[in-house]
Design a protein that fits this description.
Layout: H1 9-27, H2 32-101, H3 108-137, H4 155-186, H5 192-223, H6 229-267, H7 273-310
């Protein structure tokens, strides 16, 4: 960042030229009055430099103060809205629980309401942390894994931990739903495709939880000095790419099973061959995404290896 007290180099260069000209004029026989006029001009120029630097500094301070005030107002509103959403979800959950106790609604409906409450509570905590970081640092909250501590406090890890707790609860709810769907499929009430759909949802939620867990580990490694800032960000890309490859491959397996069932239905004459052709096209597109994700992972890992060699 440039020093606000340092004048523009081009302005300084021009000032030096002007001063040199006045000195040359004084050496060639100009009158004392003209020399005095030259000194006045030089003094005005030097004063202009000082005033310009002061004005630039004042303008920057006003701008930073205005940005901080605006950001604090926005975060305060978001914090208040998060509190209102939490209160609304708590009231809805209380009403639904009464209906469940009365046998009017199923127990499983409470799972998602409890998850919404947990999410809303997390939003309140996250917005609160953002406000605290802004007030402590005077700047916008930072979420990079290589972000510095603020007065010895690790706001990045605190926020990641809250998000990981939410993701863990989400996985638990989706697993319960998947188990219930498997039980329904076992007695012929639900289709196998529905079970696979639930399994994919669980896999996606588990991937998100792994992402957050790995981010916490990378953050710790960076703070402990085991890796550099560049390596921390690259390791984040690596973890995301690995999880993306795993999810894409699992989803591709789901499409392959669906395509196999489609071919069986075509053989029985209960499905048009056009449907199978469309599914094959989708499968080919998915395979292309898998190859791309693997290529991205390979690129990141090569760069990580280069960074490790430089240490």
């Amino acid at each position: 960042m440039s020093d606000t007290h340092t004048p523009d180099p081009r302005f300084v260069e021009n000032l030096e030229w002007q001063l040199g000209r006045e000195l040359r004029r004084s050496r060639t026989g100009t009158t004392p009055q003209s020399r005095f006029r030259g000194l006045k001009i030089a003094g005005l120029m030097l004063g202009s430099v000082a005033l310009g630097a002061a004005a630039m500094e004042a303008t920057q301070q006003l701008g930073e103060s205005w940005r901080k005030e605006l950001l604090e107002a926005r975060l305060s509103v978001q914090f208040e809205l998060a509190q209102q959403r939490l209160q609304m979800h708590q009231e809805t959950e209380a009403q639904t629980r009464e209906q469940v106790d009365a046998g009017l609604r199923g127990e499983e409906e409470l799972w998602y309401l409890e998850l919404q409450i947990t999410q809303a509570d997390a939003d309140v905590r996250l917005r609160g942390l953002e406000l605290e970081e802004l007030q402590a640092s005077g700047r916008e909250p930072l979420d990079e894994l290589s972000s510095p501590l603020v007065d010895g406090r690790d706001f990045v890890t605190e926020r990641l931990q809250i998000q990981a707790d939410i993701a863990r609860r989400h996985v638990e709810v989706l697993r319960s739903e998947a188990e219930r769907e498997e039980q329904r499929a076992a007695v012929g009430v639900a289709a196998q495709q529905d079970v696979q759909g639930r399994d994919l949802a669980v896999a996606e939620a588990e991937r998100h939880l792994r992402d957050l867990t790995q981010q916490l580990q990378i953050r710790r490694a960076y703070l402990d000095g085991e890796i550099s800032a560049v390596e921390a960000e690259l390791k984040l890309l690596e973890a995301e790419a690995q999880n993306r490859v795993a999810l894409l491959e699992q989803t591709r397996g789901y499409f392959e099973l669906e395509l196999e069932r489609a071919h069986q239905a075509i053989d029985l004459g209960t499905l048009s061959p056009i449907v199978a052709t469309q599914m094959e096209t989708r499968l080919a597109e998915w395979e292309a995404q898998v190859r791309l994700a693997r290529a991205e992972l390979e690129i990141v890992q090569r760069e990580l290896a280069r960074q490790a060699e430089r240490r």
